[in-house]
UniProtKB/TrEMBL annotation:
InterPro entries xref list: NOL11, Nol11_C, NOL11_N
UniProt KW Transcription keyword: yes
The Nucleolar protein 11 C-terminal domain, residue ranges: 360-672
GO cellular component: nucleolus
Pfam families xref list: Nol11_C, NOL11_N
Protein name as catalogued: NOL11 protein
Example GO BP: maturation of SSU-rRNA
Keywords assigned by UniProt, alphabetized: Activator, Nucleus, rRNA processing, Transcription, Transcription regulation
GO molecular function annotation: RNA binding
Span of domain Nucleolar protein 11 N-terminal: 1-286
Subcellular location: Nucleus, Nucleolus
Length: 674
């Protein structure tokens, strides 16, 4: 979320429609989706094609799937039937009973009560609202009717379970929240329909304003959050997110949302999720024990026009370094993400109210001397760990890079290296760091960032790759680079040339399969190419390995790779080919060393590079031999593994016989492999 970086994308076929929200199975780490009402799809993160994922066609239309962290997925059908996913997959075409008749489901929620999942849903029919409580594992079902409210009707629902009692909160059109208590009955027999009475829990009445809620979530036993529009006399209604204390009937804090919302609010692990304008906004909150003094204080604050306090660093080249949504005692909101961190102007760091002094300190140090700045920043980072220490370190790095941009002669290389190597940072916390390192040609810092940051944008990854390929080997000799990823598999002589050894393992040697490619190359030249030494020096190889380790999304990286100069693309492909051959020397296709590239990383980058530059490489004479050798080597490996597949059965039989053979008996056996 912080970097708006897609980690996976799956699509249904043209004409198919996803008909309920996709959920994650916490137990198996799989995604579950339903398209065209009845077709169930299950897949894992590494699956690419959704059409090839597990498919099951059900006998009834699905309304929603709820996934419980400790109870597994629960499927609610439009007819009111409920099944756990395990039971459903045993017989996908099993008949699903119709629990409701001529009723339309308006809301549903799933909860855990002890070891049992409980599913609650509300329905509407001719203006009447009903509540169903089901325990699918116990085949328990209870139906209730909501007490009618004159001149108003429910807009949305939310619920929670405490002490064997369901607390259902209903947001009505008369700007009020009503509470309904439903005891979880233990018997499994259906009883006559009961009428549930409700009690007024909260009225959104602030002097001179009217709050029209559209979405409601429970934060804890004393607080709820409401997303809606706030209408003030004489002004246009404005959408806002507000926190209310239900115990003392007070508004705790609110935040206007000028870009508009979709009307939906989600809450998960002390974070709000909502659509604000065209971006997903994530706001962290923290609820503390409610007290009358705090509630009264909030009531006074809520009458001010600026309820939430913002710490804005626009004075530092208009960069918004710190945004804090603060409320004093009872509820604290923290703006964690409403940002596109690929843009320097939208940088936001997570800061709790108690770290606001960090912002003031960094403002005071803006014009301090270099010695004073670094001394104060070291002291700031040496403080006892706090929940927001990581965000504080991010602000420190941003302050340093900001000074680097204002003063081209200033660059604290060792200080920055120390921070990146010893702190758990990410690109999103200090987005200008790698840009400054690229400008300063600090290859060592870029290498460390590529190895440690999990969220580097593809544009920056490409910029690092281009910088590494363009820098001269002579210049790299004078640069300190971490060689742990290459020192174990590139054999070096005094002249930094690899010792040439012919590759004869895994089904390939220089003399074999000379007829595999139409391009004819003299034997001496072919042999020299096949046993070619590493095309780059140790330092450059280590830097390129860091790029291979960096996470990326192919869709976003490919357009940048197409801009890589042809000669650099060929050099990079030669290095990838060299790594591929080196990996194939080993039976387990694994390179030795720390942070060495894996065979999958090597092959993925080779495919990316060929996709981006294949037409150019085919036309370039200097790439012809490389492509020919690459084609030969891959084809030889395919033949080799094909032959292995043919004797797989015999190898399994040998393995079985080896287990059966007594270790202390001597025997000579002749096994005929057919």
């Amino acid at each position: 979320i912080s970097d708006q970086k897609p980690l996976g994308c799956w699509s249904v076929k043209h004409g198919q429609i996803l008909t309920c929200p996709v959920v994650c199975n916490f137990e198996t780490h799989e995604y579950i989706a339903v398209h065209d009402d009845k077709v169930l799809r299950i897949w894992k993160n590494e699956d690419i094609n959704l059409d090839k994922a597990f498919k099951a066609t059900l006998s009834a239309d699905v309304y929603r799937i709820h996934s419980l962290p400790d109870g597994g997925p629960v499927v609610l059908f439009r007819g009111g039937g409920v099944r756990t996913l395990d039971v459903l997959l045993e017989a996908p075409q099993q008949e699903i009973e119709n629990v409701i008749s001529d009723e339309v489901i308006r809301w549903s929620g799933a909860f855990m009560e002890g070891q049992q999942p409980v599913l609650i849903f509300t329905t509407e029919k001719d203006g009447d609202f009903f509540v169903y409580v089901q325990k699918p594992k116990l085949s328990s079902l209870h139906k209730y009717k909501l007490e009618q409210q004159e001149s108003s009707k429910p807009l949305c629902f939310t619920a929670h379970i405490t002490n064997q009692t369901v607390t259902l909160l209903c947001l009505y059109s008369n700007d009020s929240v009503y509470q309904v208590l439903i005891p979880l009955q233990q018997d499994t027999e259906e009883e006559e329909e009961e009428i549930l009475s409700k009690s007024l829990l909260l009225n959104f009445s602030v002097p001179g304003t009217v709050l029209k809620g559209t979405s409601l979530v429970v934060l804890d036993k004393d607080h709820v959050a409401v997303l809606g529009s706030l209408a003030v006399a004489g002004k246009e209604p404005r959408e806002c997110l507000s926190i209310w204390n239900t115990k003392f009937q007070t508004l705790q804090t609110s935040k206007e949302l000028p870009l508009g919302t979709s009307g939906q609010l989600w809450c998960y692990e002390e974070k709000f999720f909502l659509i604000h304008g065209k971006v997903l906004t994530v706001i962290m909150y923290k609820c503390e024990t409610s007290s009358l003094a705090a509630a009264v204080g909030k009531l006074k604050d809520s009458q001010n026009s600026d309820v939430s306090s913002f710490v804005n660093w626009n004075t530092l080249e208009d960069e918004e370094l710190v945004v804090s949504l603060q409320s004093q005692e009872s509820v604290a909101l923290r703006a964690e993400s409403k940002m596109n961190l690929r843009s320097r102007r939208n940088t936001v760091a997570k800061v709790q109210p108690e770290t606001l002094s960090v912002g003031q300190l960094l403002l005071n140090l803006k014009d301090a001397s270099t010695y004073v700045l670094e001394t104060e920043l070291r002291q700031l980072m040496s403080k006892a760990p706090t929940p927001d220490l990581q965000a504080t370190i991010g602000c420190v790095v941003t302050a340093l890079t900001d000074r680097c941009k204002r003063n081209p002669k200033y660059y604290p290389q060792n200080f920055l290296l120390e921070i990146v190597e010893t702190r758990d940072l990410s690109y999103s916390l200090c987005p200008d760091l790698m840009a400054v390192a690229l400008e300063k040609k600090d290859m060592h810092l870029l290498q460390i960032c590529l190895e440690r940051f999990p969220d580097i944008p593809e544009e920056i990854t490409y910029a690092c790759l281009k910088a590494f390929l363009s820098i001269s080997e002579a210049h790299l000799q004078n640069i300190d680079v971490n060689l742990d990823s290459v020192i174990c598999y590139i054999d070096v002589e005094f002249d930094d040339k690899e010792v040439k050894t012919e590759i004869v393992e895994n089904g390939f040697s220089a003399e074999m399969d000379q007829d595999m490619c139409d391009t004819k190359i003299p034997k001496e030249r072919q042999f020299r190419s096949d046993v070619e030494s590493c095309p780059v020096g140790l330092q450059k190889a280590a830097l390129l390995n860091a790029v291979l380790h960096s996470a990326y999304t192919e869709t976003f990286l490919l357009p940048h790779l197409k801009n890589l100069p042809a000669q650099q693309a060929i050099l990079f492909l030669r290095y990838l080919y060299y790594l591929y051959v080196k990996c194939s020397e080993k039976v387990n296709t694994t390179l030795p060393g720390i942070r060495s590239p894996t065979i999958n990383q090597i092959m993925d980058w080779m495919c990316l590079l060929l996709d981006a530059h294949f037409t150019v490489m085919v036309m370039l004479p200097e790439a012809k031999e490389l492509l020919s050798n690459l084609h030969k080597f891959v084809r030889a490996q395919v033949r080799f593994y094909s032959e292995l597949n043919k004797i797989e059965g015999s190898l399994r039989e040998l393995q079985r016989l080896n287990h059966l053979r007594e270790s202390q008996t001597y025997s000579i056996e002749v096994l005929e492999i057919i």
